[in-house]
UniProtKB/TrEMBL annotation:
Family label: Belongs to the LDH2/MDH2 oxidoreductase family.
InterPro entries: Mal/L-sulf/L-lact_DH-like_ah, Mal/L-sulf/L-lact_DH-like_NADP, Mal/L-sulfo/L-lacto_DH-like_sf, Malate/L-lactate_DH-like
Species per Swiss-Prot/TrEMBL record: Bradyrhizobium erythrophlei
Keyword set, alphabetical order: Oxidoreductase
Protein name, as recorded: Malate/lactate/ureidoglycolate dehydrogenase, LDH2 family
Keyword hit for Oxidoreductase: yes
The keyword Glycoprotein is annotated on this UniProt entry: no
MF terms (GO), sorted A to Z: oxidoreductase activity
Length: 369
């Protein structure tokens, strides 16, 4: 630990910086202390820190104390026995046994990749899962293995169907990753909502306002108060009816076909402590060279990326980038400087470590490099 580093958080400002490997190790220790096997603890910690590295801190390590609380309450099963039941040679059904969604989705994608390796396409439908954090983790898992990855999930009610005012649909993410040759790959992770609820919770936790258009209050009025949005309010869909329809699609593919909860019945990860969530996932891996040769596929993807980058910029823009390119740049930066955390987030993590009798998270009040 350098002289700039400390393990206490008596300051009220930030950010504080944490080395990514140290953050993963810290997360693993906490999870093992809550009865997760080492391999599963590593999966969860890696997925959380990956989100932080990519700038998706609403789904990062700062959420770990909440997951651990759900483990202690018996709402997340730390030791599932996950088995994918093949229903056809190219499709499998996975009972998540109320385990960490990170573990369920990682297992599901690994099985989908094995099917795709043999048959070209592999699909796993998961039920009885829980919140799985950033959907990009599983699409990238496929891409890193040389496949196209497609991941859908449903989520608890947060958004009304277009024209409604009561939450029914989830802010259910869509993630797709497709490899490229020498150029930037396609790497999409998006919600059908204008803003994920995690951004609203983060604003409330930090005492900040949210932009107008993110959410409605309980009376259906636009608000900049994150607490009003969280207290009976709803988030808004992107593109009006288009975002609403995408959220319904996630419910069909994640919930309806899997046997998981759907149509507003997925329990809220942050608010409902009566029973497990019963989230559903749709996980798919596909060989990118099913219809053209692999070399041709790579050339075509590179052509797409090149033409995107060479497109003349509109007023107010400095460049045109591929989906996921900003996140890749942030990851490279954060691996050098450390992952930034707000003081309140660090304090919650230190408290969790103290309760478990574990060493604190090593943090620095300056970038690490």
């Amino acid at each position: 630990m350098t002289s700039a580093q400390t393990t206490h958080t008596d300051a009220t400002t930030g950010p504080f910086y944490v080395d990514a490997e140290a953050a993963e190790a810290f997360g693993r220790r906490l999870l093992v202390a809550h009865d997760l096997p080492k391999e599963d603890a590593g999966t969860v910690a890696r997925c959380l820190v990956k989100a932080d590295l990519r700038g998706v801190d609403t789904h990062g390590l700062q959420t770990l104390p909440h997951y651990l609380d759900r483990v202690r309450r018996g709402l997340i099963n730390p030791r599932p026995n996950l088995k994918v039941e093949r229903v056809t040679p190219m499709a499998g059904s996975l009972d998540g046994e109320n385990a960490f969604g990170f573990v369920v989705a990682t297992k599901g994608m690994a099985e989908a990749i094995e099917m795709a390796r043999e048959f070209g396409v592999g699909i796993v439908s998961a039920r009885r899962s829980t919140h799985f954090g950033a959907a990009c983790n599983y699409a990238l898992q496929a891409m890193d293995a040389g496949f196209i990855g497609i991941v859908f999930t449903n989520a608890s009610r947060a958004m009304p169907p277009w024209g409604g005012r009561e939450g029914l649909l989830g802010t259910s993410p869509i993630a797709v990753a497709a490899p490229a040759g020498l150029e930037t790959p396609f790497d999409l992770d998006m919600s059908p909502a204008v803003a994920a609820r995690g951004k609203i919770r983060r604003a409330a936790r930090r005492g900040q306002q949210i932009p107008l258009g993110y959410a409605l209050d309980a009376k259906g009025r636009r608000t900049t108060d994150p607490n009003a949005a969280l207290d009976g309010g709803t988030v808004q869909p992107i593109g009006g009816p288009k975002g609403s329809a995408l959220a319904m699609l996630m419910d069909v593919m994640g919930g309806v076909i899997s046997g998981a909860a759907f149509a507003g019945d997925v329990r809220n990860h942050f608010e409902d402590y009566e029973a497990p969530q019963n989230v559903g996932h749709f996980i798919m891996a596909m060989k990118p060279d099913l219809f053209v040769s692999r070399d041709e596929y790579m050339r075509r993807m590179d052509t797409l990326a090149k033409r995107v980058h060479l497109n003349p910029t509109a007023e107010g823009f400095d460049e045109v980038i591929m989906p996921g390119e900003r996140e890749r740049r942030l990851e490279a930066q954060h691996r050098r400087t450390g992952v930034p955390f707000h003081a309140r987030e660090v304090a919650a993590l230190q408290e969790a470590a103290a309760k478990a009798g574990l060493p604190p998270l090593p943090v620095s009040n300056k970038p690490l490099g």
